[in-house]
């Protein structure tokens, strides 16, 4: 963690692929100089009744990834955020608008969100944030703080949960994968915390050296195949778990085929490994 550098900037000017104009993503977060997060921020009040302004933020993300726009910025991005002051949604590159999701935090207590939202900034920090802005912006901000504690919103929870340095690196390393068919995929919060619980359980032994078992329950179409791929990826990446073995038991052949294709497509198995593994199972 200490070997990484974290920066962000507002209104980053990025020339489009054809050199005919620029786009300005609202916020870009850099890790070691790589733009790993792109944020589009909108006003909370919408001109379209019943529609969140986050719809516009998502639309801009999707537009900016087109080949004649600024896809070269998104080539490095792992997380995309759409925020509007009250709400927040996240996705990754290539995610369709219907798959953008909310985040529900299970490890950070609400009191921590409140503390961070109302943390008093030093004069140096205030100057860094407001010296390049109209003086009214700083006055308005100070008036908000003087009125009492600020209310934590879903936008705040999303930003704090996903953009803490350790969580961002976790999401990049363990919970983002490239699928040959679906493209880049980022885990939902249920998958993240389910896999974290699995890793903790695998690393916990009783006095006899045994582990407890457990169940993660999925509904149909909720991403259980990708949960398996994310878990396998975590086992490979985490040095203390690299020698683990995964045995998948299914109750029908078509599910075996589906899972083997998902593992191979997600890069956990090569096609050759997939064939060898399933041949061994069939011969048992």
UniProtKB/TrEMBL annotation:
EC class (word)? hydrolase
Superkingdom as given in the UniProt entry: Bacteria
Catalysed reaction(s)? Endonucleolytic cleavage of DNA to give random double-stranded fragments with terminal 5'-phosphates, ATP is simultaneously hydrolyzed
Q: Where are the transmembrane segments?
A: none
What UniProt keywords are attached to this protein's entry? ATP-binding, DNA-binding, Endonuclease, Hydrolase, Nuclease, Nucleotide-binding, Restriction system
State the Gene Ontology terms under molecular function.
endonuclease activity
Q: What is its EC number?
A: 3.1.21.3
Query: Locate the SWI2/SNF2 ATPase domain: which residues?
Result: 190-267
- Segments forming domain Restriction endonuclease type I HsdR N-terminal: 2-97
Identify the CDD domains for this entry. HsdR_N
**A Pfam family name for this chain?**
SWI2_SNF2
Give the protein family.
Answer: Belongs to the HsdR family.
Q: What protein name applies here?
A: type I site-specific deoxyribonuclease
Species of provenance: Psychrosphaera algicola
């Amino acid at each position: 963690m200490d070997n990484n550098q974290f920066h962000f900037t507002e209104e980053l000017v990025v020339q489009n692929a054809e050199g005919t104009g620029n786009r300005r993503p609202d916020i870009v977060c850099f890790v070691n100089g790589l733009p790993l997060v792109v944020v589009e921020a909108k006003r909370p009040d919408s001109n379209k009744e019943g529609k969140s302004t986050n719809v516009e933020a998502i639309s801009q993300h999707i537009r900016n990834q087109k080949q004649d726009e600024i896809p070269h910025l998104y080539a490095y991005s792992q997380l995309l955020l759409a925020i509007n002051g009250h709400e927040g949604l996240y996705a990754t590159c290539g995610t369709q608008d219907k798959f953008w999701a909310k985040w529900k935090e299970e490890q950070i207590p609400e009191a921590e969100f409140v503390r961070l939202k109302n943390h008093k900034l030093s004069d140096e920090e205030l100057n860094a944030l407001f010296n390049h802005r109209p003086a009214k912006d700083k006055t308005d901000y100070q008036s908000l703080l003087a009125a009492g504690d600020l209310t934590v919103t879903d936008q705040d929870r999303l930003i704090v949960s996903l953009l803490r340095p350790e969580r961002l690196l976790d999401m990049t390393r363990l919970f983002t994968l490239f699928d040959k068919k679906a493209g880049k995929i980022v885990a939902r919060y249920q998958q993240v915390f389910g896999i974290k619980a699995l890793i903790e359980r695998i690393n916990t032994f009783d006095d006899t050296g045994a582990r407890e078992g457990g169940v993660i329950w999925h509904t149909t179409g909720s991403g259980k195949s990708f949960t398996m791929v994310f878990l396998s990826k975590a086992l490979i990446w985490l040095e203390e778990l690299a020698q683990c073995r995964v045995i998948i038991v299914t109750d029908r052949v078509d599910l075996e085929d589906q899972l083997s294709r998902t593992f191979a497509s997600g890069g956990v198995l090569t096609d050759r490994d997939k064939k060898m593994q399933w041949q061994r199972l069939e011969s048992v």
